[in-house]
Amino acid sequence: MTDTRAQTLFRQKLELLILSEDEAILNRAREVISRHYLTFKQMPYSELDSSSRSELMRAQMVLMVQEESEDLSAFAARVDQVLNLFPRSRIVTVMAASLSRENLEGTQNPRVTPLSQSEFNRTLKFEYICLYRCRAQYFEIQIGDLFPMTTMAFPVFVRMPLNQRYLAVVYSNSVLSDERFQRVGKAESTFIQNRDSEKYLDYITTYYDTSGRGLRKRARALFLSLCHGALHLNEILLFDFKSPGPEAFRARYEALQKTATDLLHLLGTEEDLWDLFREVLKGEFYELWRAPWIAVYGAMIAKKSGQGDPLTVLMAGLLTDVGLFDIDDQISREFLTSESRTVLEEQQREFNNHPILSLNRSLIKGLPLSEEIKAVMVCTHERFDEKGFPNQVPADKIPVEAYILQFAEKIDQGVLTTMKKNGVGFRFLKEKIWEAENNAGTTFSPAFLAAIAESLL
Question: Is the model's pTM score more than 0.90?
């Protein structure tokens, strides 16, 4: 890092504080830092004294490492000290290789995400949690969604152009005056914390009806709520050491399922919501995590075509690629970033395991999945020509919901490539994908393609 860069760094929002001198840890962290231009500071834990805290207090995420010779109680004490010193920060801990899962109760604080050595070094999980904590804690909303002289149940923020910090301009439990509404309306963008998505949804539901403009705003608010619910579930689901108890986990899943059900009620309307969902959220994190879009695109196809169960499609779509975060990060990144959503031939064998890994992780964590969702999750890469994976399932045994999610994934792939490059519309994109798959005759049966054709118009 040059001197100039070092001088300007802390006029920016501090995203990552690394409290370690371990070269292997630093090298791994630098890969993510350089890929996404994260602002960071690195220092030994021993230098974390009161004289140095002022510039670090706003660090969004702190990375700590358990030493091989350090027992869990001593490490937990260090973690607790950092939690107290940085009350607004989230902590990621890299656990010693010798640690067994059963002895990790000391770091189950909800602000702490423990990673195993394998999770940190081999998978996308560290990159996922960095981007989530540093770049995806706020959802953009439209100031026109709010009404002057209403009591706000959640704060509203603007993002400062120079330091990229979020500044509260409307406070929770305050009345949004006409004057403040006009002033906030001059900002380029307005945001809410993603944890307030339910309160935002309640606000939209209270002040807008279920037709016309109100329907679109409700659909948008429900999608934001769905994203937050899925992210909230992922905080437990994705990470080996996170296990707050089956009741809490089941409650998160059931809350997500309720939001999905509410959203499905809107998807059967004549309103064209494709572009609305496409434009809801943007940023590096949402290039890494595409589950909500694939799930909702699939649910719309199911709802409008009458094929399969839309709720099964939506819930399976949110879970079916969880296993991508359990395979080698070079393989999952190749799949997520390649325009064709494929991997290299030498990567195929490990990649083929990810549907089974998705199901196994969900079951080990105790998700109350229906048999229908389980069947769909392991068939989203099976094909009509019986050359899919992981099990080359006979064509007549592949659930229609699995076909729908495969088609939805191709649409999402087109959104990130063809639509972005060429500026084509959704209808053109969907028709071209349908024609290509109909001519290929490999992934989808002719009967399936005929059944969904009108839902794509």
Answer: yes
